[in-house]
Amino acid sequence: MAKVEPRTLPGFMELLPNEQILFDQIKQTIEDSYKTFGFLPIDTPIIELSEVLLAKAGGETEKQIYRFERGDTDLSLRFDLTVPLAKYVAKNYGNLSFPFRRYQIGKVYRGEKAQKGRYREFYQCDIDIIGDETLDIINDAELPSIIYFTFKKLGFDDFTIKINNRKILNGLYESIGQKDNSVEIMRIIDKIDKIGVQAVEEELKKLGISEDVIDKIISFIKIDGSSDEKIDKLEALKIENEVYRQGVRELKDVVKYVRMFGIPENNFTVDLTIARGLDYYTGTVYETFLNDYRELGSVCSGGRYENLAENYTDKKLPGVGVSIGLTRLFYKLNELNIIKADKKSISDILIIPMTENLQVPIKLATELRKLKVNTEIYLNNKKIKAKMKYANKLEIPYVIVIGDDEISSGKIKVKNMETGEEVQCDIDASKIKELI
Amino acid sequence: MAKVEPRTLPGFMELLPNEQILFDQIKQTIEDSYKTFGFLPIDTPIIELSEVLLAKAGGETEKQIYRFERGDTDLSLRFDLTVPLAKYVAKNYGNLSFPFRRYQIGKVYRGEKAQKGRYREFYQCDIDIIGDETLDIINDAELPSIIYFTFKKLGFDDFTIKINNRKILNGLYESIGQKDNSVEIMRIIDKIDKIGVQAVEEELKKLGISEDVIDKIISFIKIDGSSDEKIDKLEALKIENEVYRQGVRELKDVVKYVRMFGIPENNFTVDLTIARGLDYYTGTVYETFLNDYRELGSVCSGGRYENLAENYTDKKLPGVGVSIGLTRLFYKLNELNIIKADKKSISDILIIPMTENLQVPIKLATELRKLKVNTEIYLNNKKIKAKMKYANKLEIPYVIVIGDDEISSGKIKVKNMETGEEVQCDIDASKIKELI
User: Fold this and answer.
1) What gap in Å lies between CA A59 and CA A79, rounded to an integer?
2) B430 Cα to chain A: minimum distance (Å)
3) Contacts of residue B375 in chain A, CB cutoff 8 Å?
4) A212 and A174 share a domain?
C-alpha cells in the first residue's frame, strides 16, 4: 500500500509528550493565576464569519488571515482573542455583569512567513476587564499585579513590567504640532530598544520633522530616573495640553495603585518609550521583559482601549487587558532550557506485574487511583528489563514490581527511580501513597 | 458608524460564563480521570495538509471536511483526533515508548447540516493505547474501567458499558456465506435499538439475503441472558470458524478482566448488537449508555483496531481507544438540567471596598490570593446595591464589605451569600479562609 509521509505543517507546534507535559503545566499555571483574580472563562469558536471577524481589520493583519468559503459562506479563523471578545460582549451584553472580567486561553491563526520560532498556530492567554460606559483607572493597576503574580508563579523573579500611557504621547505630539504624525512617530520610538537613538532620529527626519521638534521628542524620551522622578519631570514639563495632563495623572494613579497591589519596585517601571505598535490602545500600555532573557522581547503586553466593540454596538465599552503569547514563549524558554516541569511524568507510579495472577496488581492500581495517585499498570507481556526501560523513558518516579513472591508474602518494594532506593511496604494503597 | 451584527455561526457552541464554568469542570474531570490512568497528553494542530489528513478518508466524512487552499497548499481542519494520532505516532515512532498511552482533548470540525444539538465545532476527549506490533487483550478491558471511573467521577451511577467483539460478527457472517455483506449487515443491526427487529429483517431482505440466513442472524442477535450466559451460548453455537472462535475467546477474556478491574456487574454487559458503524474496528467494541437518558445515544464509544497508521508507515501499530463527544454530551445534559457545577463561580470571595482607603482591601485580596483563595475585589465606583447585585449575579459565595469603620475597628463581616448569614472576623486572610 502506498504511504503518505506523516508530517506536520511548518509553523505549527507539535510537541513530544514530555515537552507537552511541561507546556500544559505552564498553561495551567497561567490559567490558575487568572482564576485567582476571579476572571471568568469564555470559549469562542475558532471559525467566525469573515464579516464579523474582519469588521475592523485591515492592512497586515488581514493578509495573514486564514480565510475561505464553505458553500456561499465567507469564513475566517480567528487571529486573536480580542475581536472574538468584542463580538461576545456585544452579542451577550444583556446577560453579562459589568465590569466583565474574562480570561480566554486558546489557539489563534496567522499565516505569517514561516521561520524558526514564529508560529502560524499559537496559544494566546488573554485577560480583559470590560466596563459598561466607564472603567476606573485602578483597573489599569490591577492588571500589572496579575502579570506579576503570574510570572512569579511561573518561577521568574527578575522581570520588569514597563508601564506608559498613550495619552502622554498623544498630548505631547499634539502640543508640538505632530498630531497627524503621532502614530508613525510612536511606531518609530517603539523600536528604540532595537535600533538605538540615532536610527530613531534618522527615521523621524525622514518623516519631514524639523530638528528642534525631534530634539523635543528625544529629550522627552530621555526623561530618566525612578518612576517617581519621571512622573515629576513629566509634570514639570510646560506642556499645557489637556490630553497630556490627563495621561500624566493616569500614569501617576497607576503607579500609586501598582504599589498598593504589592508589586515590588524592581518589578515595574515607568518607561516612556513603550507605545505598543497598535493604534488600538488609548491610555495605559504595558510590556513585560524577563531581564535575563531580553532577547525574548515582551512576554506579556497590553493596555487600555476606550471602546472595545464599536464595530458591533453603540454601547461604549472601555476595557483594559493583557495577553501572553504562550507558544512563542514556550518555544524560547524551552530552547534556552530555562524551564523545568514540576512533574516530568503524568503517572506517579508504575505497577509492573511479573505474574499470571493479575488480580492483586490490578486491585492495587484501582485502590491507588481512588486515592488520587496517578497509577499506570504495565499490562503487556514483556521481559522485566523492557518494562523498567519503559518506566525510565517516561520518567515515572516510582515503580512497584509484583510477582508471585510478593503476592504470597503480601510485601512489595517501592522503588524510587531517581535514587534507586527501594523501600519495603505492605500491599496497601494508603501506605504506598505515604511513601511517594 | 455602521455596525456589523455580532453573531456566531450556527453549529458553533458559545456559552455564557456560568455555563462555561460548568463545561470546563466537566472537561477537567475527564482530563483528570485520563491522567489518573497515566495517559500522556498530546496536542496536534487543528490545520493539517489535506494529503495527510485525508490519506484514508472518503465518503460521508470527506464531504463534511472544512478544506481550503492557502497559497498553493491544500489544507483541512481535523475532523477527529484519531487520524492526527495516527500521523503523530508514525511521525514520532522512534521517540515514543510503547505501549503509547495518550489522551487528547480538543476541538474537531465537521460541516454537518446544522440542527439543534448537532455541532460543527465540537470537543472530543480521546484516549488510546497503541502497541508496537502487538497489544495484549487485557488493554481492551482497561478501557471500560477508565470509562467507568470517568462517568462515576462525573456523578453518574446508572450507566451501562456495552461490549462486543467484531470478530464474532465477522466470523459468523463468514460461516453463513455473508462475508461480503457483513459491513452492510452490521450497519443494519447497529440500528436495532432505534428501528426494531422487524425493520432490521426487512432491511436485510433488501440486501437479497435468504430467509433462513436472516433467521440465523436474528437468532444470533437474540442471544440473551447475563454476560456469562451469552458467552456460554456463543461457545455452544456450532460455528466452526476460527475468526468467530477467536472473537468469543477475546470477549470472554475482556469480561474476565473487566471484573478484575472492579467494574460492577450492573455497569457493563455483553451486547451482541453493538457493532459501531465504522469498518475501522476489528475486535472489541464499546458503547456507553446513561440508563436514565437513553435518548442521548452512546456517550462514550470506541474499540480495537489492528493497524492505526497503515496509511503512513509499514509498522504494525494495533490500538484500542474510546472517545467522549463532550460538546454534544454537555448540550444534552445541560438541556435536561441534570448536571450541576461543583463551584458556580470562579471567585471564592468578593471584597467590596466602601472607602477611599483602598490599601486595606487590596492588601487583604493579595493575602487571600497567596493562600489560593480566588479573590476578586470590586474596583469600580458604584453604590453598594450595585456591588451586591454583581456578587449575586456571579453567584460568588462570600462577600466582605470594607468601609472606614471596618478599617478602624480591624473587624469585618464575612457574608455567606446563599444563607445570608454574616460572621464577624479580624481582617486576617488565614482566619477568613477558615470561614469559607
Assistant:
1) 13
2) 16
3) 36-38
4) yes
